[in-house]
Design goal:
By secondary structure, the protein is an alpha+beta fold. Helix content is about 50%, strand content about 10%. It has a single domain, classed as Cytochrome p450, CATH 1.10.630.10.
Length: about 525
């Protein structure tokens, strides 16, 4: 990066450096987990159009990149408050259309989904990362993408998730045991690595019939490093030439793309290849075998790209969602007590912990999970409501601003689970239902909605009820977790690292069952 700073020094804006670039070009992580770019020609039909407002703090060539600050989501939210639900910002040579109104976003991404389901180009993600636009996450919506997405949707449908429930329950149970034991041994615990192990085991067990024993497991550490590096290369900082072509000289001299290809050739691809191969011969059900059994004809490279999509997206999103949940609940002990009381009542009546199918019997728990995801979200020519969106523009759902939109959520800055008590349908049902009845937008829109949404929701539910049936989350002597700030973490926005105490509830109904709950 020192060489990079020397290269860009001649640019007239003296305050342009890597410290600014990192949070700036990672805006996707802070404001959205979904974006699209259209690829059709302008209609010859003339229409009256409204002008999309542009924030004033734009500089020559770099556009708004220097104005976004270290937390771009908050800056964009402020611009939306000043200028309205749709704004246009310049990210170097690119135009980005930012939307914070769910109704307008629904029209763009769902009603106009055929025109807005393309992905903006990213050198690593579209080439070596996705093995030449294979898989689901980064491939463009051609016929092969449609077939691969249909395959993923089929094998990850709710009815198929049922066969993986025992895996998910075991991982949730082990997660909370680790939390309690670490607290008793060390006085407090940083939950992040434990949550990552939980999520990674859920996705590797369901996809490949493989799991890791602990956070010290060398193979877990290896795969965790592969995930982290993949997300780094998929980030905009690793693809600056797309925003600022002038810095392409850096890639030419210092070989960023060469490093990416070397990483894939020597580390990532051999590991993914072995995972897929082992899965085909493993005992028990898994996603790779289900694809073959379902008659879906994916090539070896498509299977590897899909495996990468599942591991990277499946590990990061669910674990960070739970990290936010724990941090928030530590601030609200009264809500914790209400959650625990509802779970206790179910256990006393049924002699076991609730499973996902019985979620409607713990409506307050569901409401808390939904509110946590709203409160701290993790993700062509289009003529919409009179706005003309320019050809080639990237359309970005401003997640932080959208979830704090007071026109959509009453008292939006208040953490209030009660707002969802009358809307406890599954996230998948809400996402595919009426836009007015959606709870949150973390898993995307329309054709680009996350295929593993049911798996993620089942995992989050299992971990949540395990935690609050067995523990009370308390702050350490250092104080409460910071829930006002955030850290850009690839395609998600993570909490600032924190430690908490998981205090075992000794007289809870769960303790009386001696943990024989499934």
């Amino acid at each position: 990066m020192d060489q990079f700073n020397k290269l860009i020094k001649p640019i007239s804006l003296s305050n342009f450096g890597s410290k600014d670039v990192l949070p700036i070009v990672s805006i996707t992580a802070a404001t959205s987990i979904l974006y699209a770019s259209y690829q059709i020609f302008l209609s010859q039909k003339k229409v009256a159009s409204k002008k999309i407002p542009i924030p004033g703090s734009s500089y020559p060539y770099v556009g708004h990149m220097l104005s976004l600050g270290e937390l771009p989501g908050k800056t964009v939210a402020k611009w939306h408050e000043e200028l309205g639900p749709i704004i246009k910002i310049r990210m170097g040579v690119q135009n980005w259309i930012m939307v914070n109104d769910p109704i307008l976003a629904h029209k763009i991404f769902v009603v106009k989904g055929a025109e807005t389901s393309h992905r903006p180009y990213n050198t690593y993600a579209h080439n070596s990362g996705a093995l030449g636009e294979k898989g689901v996450a980064f491939a463009q919506p051609d016929s092969r993408w449609k077939e691969n997405r249909a395959a993923a949707l089929s094998v990850l449908a709710p009815k198929h998730i049922e066969k993986y429930i025992p895996y998910i329950h075991k991982e949730a149970k082990d997660l909370v045991t680790r939390f309690i034991e670490s607290t008793e041994k060390e006085g407090s615990v940083d939950p992040f690595k434990h949550l990552e192990l939980n999520s990674m085991n859920v996705i590797t067990e369901t996809s490949f019939s493989k799991r890791f024993d602990s956070v010290e497991d060398p193979e877990f550490i290896k795969l965790s490093s592969i995930v982290e590096t993949t997300m780094l290369y998929c980030g905009a900082e690793s693809d600056l030439a797309n925003f600022l072509p002038i810095v392409s000289i850096y890639d030419y001299f210092f070989g960023n793309q060469a490093d990416q290809k070397k990483f894939n050739l020597n580390e990532r691809n051999p590991y993914l290849r072995s995972l897929v191969k082992e899965a085909t011969y493993a005992k028990g059900p898994n996603v790779i075998k289900a694809l073959e059994e379902g008659g879906f004809k994916l090539t070896d490279e498509e299977l590897m790209a899909l495996a990468s999509d599942l591991i990277v997206a499946g590990t990061d999103t669910a674990s960070i969602t739970l990290a936010w949940n724990i941090a928030i609940m530590c601030h609200y002990p009264d809500i914790q007590r209400k959650v625990s009381a509802e779970i206790d009542q179910f256990i006393e009546s049924n002699g076991r912990i609730p499973n996902f199918k019985e979620r409607e019997q713990v409506p307050y728990c569901i409401s808390v999970m939904k509110e946590s995801m709203r409160y701290k979200p993790t993700t062509t020519f289009v003529y919409v409501d009179g706005y003309i969106i320019p050809k080639g523009a990237s359309i970005v759902s401003s997640m932080e601003s959208m979830h704090m939109n007071s026109d959509v959520y009453t008292e939006s800055k208040k953490f209030s689970p009660e707002r969802f008590l009358n809307n406890i349908k599954t996230m998948q049902s809400a996402a595919n239902g009426k836009i007015e009845e959606r709870d949150h937008f973390n898993f995307g829109w329309g054709r680009r909605i996350c295929p593993a949404i049911s798996l993620a929701e089942t995992e989050i539910f299992a971990a949540f009820v395990q935690i609050f049936s067995r523990c009370f989350v308390e702050p350490t002597s250092d104080g409460l977790p910071d829930i006002e700030n955030a850290v850009n973490s690839g395609i998600t926005t993570a909490p600032v690292r924190y430690k908490v105490k998981f205090i075992k509830r000794k007289n809870s109904p769960m303790s009386q069952l001696n943990l024989n709950v499934f």
